[in-house]
Amino acid sequence: MKFWEQRDRAQLTLAKEIGYIRKPHGGRLRVALAFPNTYWVGMSNLGFQTVYRLFNAENDIVCERVFLPPKQELAEQLASKTPLLTLESQTPVGDFDVLAFSISFEWDYVNVLTLLRLAGIPRYASERGPRHPLIVIGGAVTFVNPEPLALFADVIAAGEGEVLVPALERACRQASDRDDLLRQLARERGFYVPSFYEPQYAANGI
Question: Could you give all domains of the chain from N- to C-terminal order, each with its CATH number?
């Protein structure tokens, strides 16, 4: 899918919506909120809609949504390497400060990697640097077992959005660099920074 086709599809989608939020980007923390499935699946998820509202309730945050392209368009977009765009302003996802995933189902794990690829962002946290968005992974699955996603996340959020969203915004504002940001978040309740830990396995591999 070409850049202009993505833009036109996004504008047609917004024309049918009621209640979406548009904010100027200038001076605000820019968060791309991703649901690792199609628009129709994501917008039927109340948790995703709640997090979208919580982010945008903060005056200093602009949050825009991003979804997995429909199946018939996905292969074409992967082949063309056209940058993945957000819904509200049709801005490349890789230009945002934070890319936050809201994941409700284990079978969407692989779609996280697909979205990272579409956005031109290295899949492994160890391969990313300051020029890449901070990758935050949250949602129902992180409460159960965050480890399957640990290699791909800079930060895993396992808590209530009402508490975590302001804490994330505050840390992003105060941090002097990416390492300082991770250290600040690691001190906050509800955030897990996988790169600060080494998993220990029992003899049976568990």
Answer: 3-13+26-194 (3.40.50.280)
